[in-house]
Amino acid sequence: MVSMSNHPRRQAPPGGREASQSYSAMEGTLTEKHWQFYSAVTSVIAVLVSVYCLSEGITGIFVHLYYIPIIIVSYRYRERGVLCSLFLVMVYLLLVFLYFPGNAHVIIEGTIRGFALMAIAFIISALASRIQTNVDALRTEIDDHKKTEDALRQSESRYMELSIKDDLTGLYNQRHFYHLLHAEIERSERYGRPLSLLLIDIDDFKLFNDTYGHMEGDRVLERIGATIQRCVRRTDWAFRYGGEEFTIFMPETLGDQAGVVAERIRAEFRAERFRPSPGKEESKTVSIGIAEYRPGEELRDFISRADRNMYEAKRRGKDQLCFELHETEA
Fold first, then answer.
1. Co-location of 30 and 152 in the same domain
2. Residue 2 in domain
3. Could you tell me which residues are beta bridge partners of residue 292?
């Protein structure tokens, strides 16, 4: 059977999904290998420039190069970054002591700069930790919002389905039948396309229900629902009309063509076997009325013709189709 008609999808809140995608894009821009490469390259450059400057007697300006690797490792690796920063500072101080062993002024100045570098490392590491904590909290909140949104969407879809479907048979219910048939009649009128309607009633269902109980009666209803779903085409719409009555409307279908599907339903359901009590086997039958839509016909008249044909099938002995009355009626 045709699946439920499409309904407009709710739009996600502008903050949640977009923020998540933006964060994922930002996170994916630099991989771990990128961070390691930049950390190593800037550290090596800082040390090499230090060696060159100190060998040329330059004592101060090159130290600013150390800020680059220290900021990178402190931001990315936090506690481990502080240790890397400490290692870089020790290398810097070692170079200062190596090139200016007796110059107290340069050594003191270098030590002060080393402490300044470590202070920067601690500050950056602390800020990075706080930033990461906030980012993790934001990510968790975004994920929670997405889960809630998905759950709400699923619930909305489920409630929509429950509002238009019959729980017992899995077919659409009567309210949905009138809504869709009205729209299909308008389409048939507008484009001059054929439309047929089947009205199906289980023969002697009340007697079966009274004899074996409602639970066994429900099994019959479930079975006829399954039979209808197996037999109809993808373009057909099947409904539980009420009680033991079912209806199917068939777009783009002439009455004779609808009769082929109706006969398939009748034959397959007749072949079903029920065991309502130990040692007792029963079969059930259906009577089916068929009506083909007439241009300009009211919805209730269309349904009434199918209904009369169904009762004519019962009058003729049940377990059969009837499609004759619409051709002889004025």
1. yes
2. no
3. 196
DSSP structural state of residue 165: B
- Note every long-range contact of 138-146, with CB atoms under 8 Å and residues 24 or more positions apart, other chains counting: 138/19, 138/23, 139/20, 139/23, 142/16, 142/19, 142/20, 142/23, 143/20, 145/13, 145/16, 146/16, 146/17, 146/20
Q: Which residues are catalytic?
A: 244
Amino acid at 34: H
Distance, in Å, from the CA atom of 306 to the CA atom of 198, rounded to the nearest integer, reads 6
d(CA 138, CA 53): 45
Q: Which amino acid is at 324?
A: E
**76 and 183 within one domain:** no
Element holding 127 (H helix, E strand): helix 104-164
Q: Which domain holds residue 151?
A: 16-158
Name residues whose C-beta falls within 8 Å of residue 69's C-beta, 6 or more positions apart in sequence: 39, 42, 43, 46, 84, 88
Cβ proximity of 288 and 265 under 8 Å: yes
For residue 3, being part of any structural domain is answered with no
The 10s digit of each residue's pLDDT in 108-138 is 877 787 777 777 777 777 777 777 788 888 8
270 and 144 in a common domain: no
Mean pLDDT on 297-302? 95
Q: Which two tokens stand for residue 52?
A: 């060159």
